[in-house]
């Protein structure tokens, strides 16, 4: 098997440049011969040089267009130069300086042999060497030069030794190249295996990372859920405590009206014949007030309890504000008249809210009742309403006792045990404002109080003005 060097593969750019230089030198050499020796007297050598120039140019063109390989281009160029050198210089064998020409050919042929060994393969190197030795032997004997004939064997020995040396180094270098190539293949295979192992490790690492992230997410989720449970437990404990306090307050508030009614009825039954009509009427009025307070308390308690256990569902619809306020005013007409309190409203025609009717009515009823309860005789209770963007803003205004800043903070809390007597001694349940706040917030509204002691109170709240988009 013919061994070749791998220069073309590893040094293609440099070898291509050398190939172009070699071809260019051959073309320049032939052009010099044409212009210096044969231009004035064209002969066989003239056309031979032209042919060599054409062949070298053609090989460069073919290689540039990728028609032939670099190895084929070198072979084409070397054989063209070698053949042109032998045929062109044969005429100098009988010249005066024939010995000089023949020795010059031998040196240049050594260069061609070296190039053939390096850039083509050893077969072409030996072929050029053997062809030149045959030509050299013929030229020496044809020239009749005693000097060349005497030293012919030396040239033979030198050429053969030189070609064997090139063969030896060619073999060593090729083995090294093959070993490097084999090592490269082995390294490539090992790299591929390492790449596969690395890919597997990366995939395992990705899976581990994904599992780690899932564990972290799960841990965070469990921690969040645990925190939420703790918060809910705290809120539940607070709610239980608040409701326990609330029911103790409600039980006390329920007990008082019942005891008052029972006591009044017992006394009336015992002393009915002896009591005057005026006193009977007074005791009946007192009993009626206690009964109304009891009814109001029970109604608020029922509404609040239904809201707490989720039975009270929000069922919003469009409600005419004016009609509802008129209804509330009609309910409390007698109550306000008994205190000579004027009921007023300031609401534009056609104004509406998008709310649960029962909750809306309960809100207005509680706030109106509170306003009358804590207003002074001959005062005014006024309800205003106006639309602002997507909400309707309400204000329930009285000219009564007012509320100091400290008590305002506790008005909506179940912890608030104290209730203030109305201007006519009416007792409060302490539940109405809490219910109002819960019902307003169910509609995504807000409630706030503006008040000063002795200067009346304004309760502001908001409800949706229309059906949401």
Structural commentary:
- The protein has 469 residues and is of the alpha+beta class.
- Among the domains are: 7-150, no CATH class; 316-464, 2-Layer Sandwich (Heat Shock Protein 90).
- Helices cover 69% and strands 10% of the residues.
- It is built from 14 helices and seven strands.
- It has helices at 7-10, 12-38, 44-64, 70-89, 98-119, 122-143, 146-150, 152-271, 277-308, 321-331, 333-338, 357-373, 405-408, 432-442, and strands at residues 316-320, 342-347, 352-356, 380-388, 391-398, 447-451, 457-464.
- The strands form two sheets. It has a five-stranded mixed sheet with strand order 2-4-5-7-6.
- A hairpin with a 5-residue loop joins strand 6 and strand 7.
- Helix 4 (70-89) packs parallel to helix 6 and helix 12 packs antiparallel against helix 14.
- It starts with 6 loop residues before the first helix and ends in a 5-residue tail after the last strand.
- The mean pLDDT is 78.
